[in-house]
Amino acid sequence: MFRFKRIAIKIGSNVLTHKDGTLDTDRMASLVEQVAALHAAGIEVILISSGAVASGRSALKLEKEPDPVSARQIFSSIGQARLINEYYELFLKHGIYCGQVLTTKESLSTRGHYLNQKNCIAQLLQHGVIPIINENDTISVTELMFTDNDELSGLVATMMDAEALIIFSNIDGIFTGDPKDPASQVIREVAVDQDLSKYIQTSKSSFGRGGMLTKTNIARKVAAEGITVIIANGKKDGILTSLLSGEGDQVCTVFLPSKREVSSVKKWIAHSESFAKGELVINDNARDVLLSDKASSILFVGITDVKGDFERGDIINIKDKEGSVVGVGKAQYDSRKMVQSIGKKGLRPAVLYDYLWVN
Ligand code: GLU
User: Fold this and answer.
1) Would you say the C-alpha torsion 246, 251, 252, 254 has a positive or negative sign?
2) Deepest in the core among 4, 97, 186, 282, taking most CB within 10 A?
3) How many angstroms is it from 52 CA to the middle of ligand 1?
4) Is this model's pTM higher than 0.85 or not?
């Protein structure tokens, strides 16, 4: 009766907390009850939950806050304890264990650690435990942080081969304009490769403010990997059950999944753009081939520049001459060797097709 066998659900801070930052335990209890019903129906659920920093900030009143990084570390440390305790007790009322998994962008940037995380979550699921994932905000600071938990949830959904990713925030979906403008409407369905740029341009501030631009970018990428993505309002009663049972017409945005098969290594690479240790700049010809339907590798003959200091096997971004990232791949050579080979013909590819994701 429910769609999907394995789903990842991201719950944003503004769904889980009141305006003053304290945990909305009634909302949490309601969401946990709905997850418990899915669990009972044999559906595997992975939660990606925010709310640590907000909850910690509301709990500990500091007379004088230290610098913002230290404050975030203190608040997330307390808030995560508060958050996971609440989840733990709530799930236990339904006879279910939940387990905490804290992660960092850095620990997902090497394939070995990535596979360790994957195994941990797979084991929890196999043993009937609900994994609750958050970034380890106590050590993820400045440039090593995920943009937000939307980015983390995309990575988790892909890593765990979820059939669907549900992103809960406090608005109904992606709007055609500013959500506060009564003329704006929720875009109900986004087809693969559908161009949303006109909405992003006409309502730049609204997309940016609510984090809708990142949500849209993540949703598109995850849908391109064959996963259905739903952006919906987590503050609505019964929303999860209703979305998954298909009963009632819930207003939300659904990004339809691509039908093409994507290997697990390519999926990891797709989410690795921000881990990149360097970049290759390619000429227009190479870019056109890359963006065409043909399966292609990156050849030295199309490379015009190599930037950064990287080793063989590191993740590198592929940029066009305007500086747009057109793809992400795994380097077949270190940067020294790549620099020596710029523009040369007849060499083995700099990035192989199997280790290349095209945006
Ligand atoms: N990891 C942060 C927290 O739990 C939230 C990040 C986000 O807002 O997406 O407080």
Assistant:
1) positive
2) 282
3) 6
4) yes
